[in-house]
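From the shared-data thread, chain only:
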Amino acid sequence: MCSYVIGVGLPRYGVRMTSMDSLTVRVMRTEEFDAMRALAVGAFGDDGIGDLLDALRESWAWSDELSFVAEHDGDLVGQVLYTGAFVDAPLRVSTVLVLSPIGVRADLQGRGIGSTLMRQSLRMLADRPEPAVFLEGHPRYYPRFGFEPASSLGFTAPSTRIPDEAFMAYRLPRFDPGLSGAL
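Structure, as tokens:
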């Protein structure tokens, strides 16, 4: 596998995507963190997302193999991050994943890159030991990928500020229907 680094972490603009066939979703290489961070900041138009990524990377919840990027012709065009978390279940504390953030380069949004990144990264998580992925997100967007209201599965959000309809869960293959509790 050859590696590359985009200078100063800034993505190149002007990529014309005519086909999703050349889009690759893969685990981010460690040396690509700055480029992934710059992509996420650009996608959200706010450096607060960069601060979030920095804090997550320095935390116990970070795992290099849970940061995925979408690449097209050598350029990073999208990213999604999963980090570790816990569900305080009645019988035991269970390790789960949280999805945040996901972003697509601003000039390429609306072309299916985010959807491809979601589907493929969730497939890549299938062999992991965690039973579920949680997120706070738009209730009309994420169900198309298999996310469902977490409260309907017996989970409670980590904050009362998270609207019930925005707190969602995705059942991974190791999901146990008896698992419930507070994220």
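The radius of gyration is 16 Å.
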